[in-house]
Write a structure and sequence with these properties.
Elements (H helix, E strand, L loop, with lengths): L2 H4 L5 H10 L5 E4 L4 H11 L4 E4 L5 H6 L7 E2 L8 H12 L3 H15 L3 E8 L2 E8 L2 H9 L14 E2 H17 L5 H7 L3 H6 L8 E2 L3
Parallel strand pairs: 1-2, 2-3, 6-7
Antiparallel strand pairs: 4-5
Helix pairs in contact: 2-3, 5-6, 6-8, 7-8
Amino acid sequence: MIPGRTGAQLLPEDLALLNEAFENVNTVKEATGNIENMRRTRKCCGADFTILSGDDGMTFAMMTDNTINASGVISVASNVAPKAITDLVHLLKEGNETEAKKNLAALEPLFNLVTVKSMEKTPFGEVVCRARNPLAYKALMSILGMPSGGCRQPLGKMTRNGLETVLSAARKVQTDNPEILKPVAEFFNVDIEQRLNNPTSWEGLFYEEY
């Protein structure tokens, strides 16, 4: 349920009616960003209804709020940090919030890449450019040597400034918590630091001009 993408929202009451009428309507990917909406979904749909976070950055709050009681996350960041995201969810399921908070802090730079905003200069003045998901993650996967392909239209490429934001976030993760990207390095047999600092790794991933 992603109102920002679809322009419509299934309300908690709608979900409850569907759940009551159809046995297989028993789960929602919650990406409204509205905690009260999530709580209302739990109240309407009952304890057996599965709520999954559709927003990496809200997974901790959703899984630790007993009026939501989310079961996990349909994660964007898991495309580049599968083990770290899995560990975060397992820690939360075990009730180990202290260790989960450490994971959360380590992953935060990646969570901030879902939408990348950059200030761009045009002949008519500066504008704010928003690179929406999955642009940043597709770019990062390519940089890291993971086969991902480009985005479908109308999404295109990132701006150079936007790509610098992606690189900065990934470099911070690699410097502070290299274990997060280690599975990618091992599986794809790549040198993460080399790819994050070699311009040939991001050729063709950004527009040369706005």
